């Protein structure tokens, strides 16, 4: 039975979908004006695994991850680059997809864009105005009136009076309350705009997700997710907008991922410890980066460091080494009665506990290594389990040779040259020219190539 920590109740709850056997999930995506960073990778790899496990558990999942393609930051960056907003967002959307593909993420079922949901945004805003939850300020902007929504703060547990007292003095004079937030901004010169009943303008950030989720999943759906930094004010404002407009519960379960630290400090451009996904993938194998992202529970903080990335790479290598030297071309079916499968499901049913699930993979790898020399049939059955369960986490889907011979830097040296050097070394050993044999081993070792002599042959892998 699947139990999920719900940020709304601040407790683990037994998951019960609105429609038996079907799950609807909306995850707040990226504002595409720059390269995606490792914080994005952590969040979206986590939700990729959640989606994979829901499907593995037999649910018919509809997974939505939006793209924010109109925003103050996007406008500012396009102006800075002297390019159109479309050119900027199209370029970084392509880069985002390439990065996410490198990390083995399955594409969402629908990937709505804010600019393609303007009609739905206007419709919700008009409903909020009709119901008295929104108003037009003196400058023409449309605001959501926060005090009108009695449940404001129920997700983030923020106190409205305390929030109002803490607001800075410089609040827009045409707001009825300091906490009110913009739903529709009136057009400014040289900015993109759309027609609306209130004049030319563009949407505020928060209303975009309320509109896109409704467009794709309806008024009420099962799971809403995102990084913990979105819990307030973004997700709080989404609840206020959607529940006021639709008159029903917005999302039953709220899932939030923990933040990434760098060497135990907050990741920040100002601290010069900010890493994009591309920068990290230039240094480490992409599957090892994915493994690292899953090595801590999704709700906990994740500490990015060279030491932790190298440890993740070494751990994944151990799993692949257990599969080496086995014929994986025709594996037996995995038994539903497997103790390892039961342990894996128990871990994942406990709020998607990937560290505990990974521990099961290492138990399997240990048993495979034991069985290789004594019971090949059992070794192959265990290998089938390891590959299937690894697939739920999005790992162990390459051939062992492909992974073990891939470079951590992503720049593989010539495999044929390595083969020639190994052949030369073997000849040197046959000629008892130990000095030359050791010289070649040391040369390859310096290039990050590890040689293993066994059963009369030499195999190699990269560190």
From TrEMBL:
Chain residues that bind ATP: 269
The protein's Enzyme Commission number: 6.1.1.16
Cofactor(s) required for function per UniProt: Zn(2+)
InterPro entries in the cross-refs: Cys-tRNA-ligase, Cys-tRNA-synt_Ia_DALR, Cys-tRNA/MSH_ligase, CysS_C, Rossmann-like_a/b/a_fold, tRNA-synt_1_cat_dom, tRNAsynth_Ia_anticodon-bd
Annotated binding of Zn(2+), by residue: 28, 209, 234, 238
Stretches assigned to the Cysteinyl-tRNA synthetase class Ia DALR domain: 343-404
One cellular component term from this protein's GO annotations in UniProt: cytosol
Subunit-structure text: Monomer.
Family: Belongs to the class-I aminoacyl-tRNA synthetase family.
Stated name of the protein: Cysteine--tRNA ligase
Organism: Aliikangiella marina
Gene: cysS
């Amino acid at each position: 039975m699947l139990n999920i920590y719900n940020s709304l109740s601040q407790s683990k709850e037994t998951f019960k979908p609105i429609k038996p056997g079907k799950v609807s999930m909306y995850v707040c995506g990226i504002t595409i004006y720059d390269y995606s960073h490792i914080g994005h990778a952590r969040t979206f790899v986590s939700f990729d695994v959640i989606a994979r496990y829901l499907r593995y558990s037999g649910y018919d999942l509809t997974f939505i991850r939006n793209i924010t393609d109109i925003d103050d930051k996007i406008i500012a960056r396009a102006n800075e680059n002297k390019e159109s907003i479309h050119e900027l967002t199209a370029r970084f959307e392509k880069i985002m997809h390439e990065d996410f593909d490198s990390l083995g993420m399955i594409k969402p079922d629908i990937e709505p864009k804010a600019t393609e949901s303007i009609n739905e945004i206007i419709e919700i805003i008009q409903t909020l105005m009709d119901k008295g939850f929104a108003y037009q300020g003196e400058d023409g902007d449309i605001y959501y009136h926060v005090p009108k929504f009695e449940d404001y703060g129920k997700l983030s547990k923020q106190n409205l009076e305390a929030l109002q007292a803490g607001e800075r003095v410089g609040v827009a004079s045409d707001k009825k309350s300091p906490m009110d937030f913009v739903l529709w901004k009136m057009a400014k010169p040289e900015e993109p705009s759309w027609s609306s009943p209130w004049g030319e303008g563009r949407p505020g950030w928060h209303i975009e997700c309320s509109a896109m989720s409704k467009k794709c999943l309806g008024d009420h759906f099962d799971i809403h997710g995102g990084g913990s930094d979105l819990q307030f004010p973004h997700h709080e404002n989404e609840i206020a907008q959607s529940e006021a407009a639709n008159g029903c519960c917005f999302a039953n379960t709220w899932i939030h991922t923990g933040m990434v630290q760098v060497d135990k400090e907050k990741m920040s451009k100002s601290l010069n410890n900010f890493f994009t996904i591309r920068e990290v993938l230039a240094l480490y194998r992409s599957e090892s980066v994915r493994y690292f992202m899953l090595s801590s529970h999704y709700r906990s903080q994740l500490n990015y460091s060279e030491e932790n990335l190298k440890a993740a790479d070494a751990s994944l290598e151990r799993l692949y080494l257990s599969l080496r030297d086995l014929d994986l071309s025709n594996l037996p079916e995995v038994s539903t009665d497997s103790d390892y499968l039961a342990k894996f499901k128990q871990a994942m049913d406990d709020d998607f506990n990937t560290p505990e699930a990974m521990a099961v993979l290492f138990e399997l790898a240990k048993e495979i290594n034991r069985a290789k020399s004594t019971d090949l049939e059992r070794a192959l059955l265990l290998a089938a389990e390891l590959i299937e369960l690894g697939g739920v986490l999005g790992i162990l889907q390459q051939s062992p040779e492909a992974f073990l011979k891939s470079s951590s830097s992503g720049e593989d040296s010539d495999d044929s040259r390595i083969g020639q050097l190994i052949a030369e070394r073997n000849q040197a050993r046959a000629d008892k020219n130990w000095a030359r044999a050791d010289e070649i081993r040391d040369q390859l070792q310096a290039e990050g190539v590890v040689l293993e002599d066994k059963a009369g042959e030499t195999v190699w892998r990269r560190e």
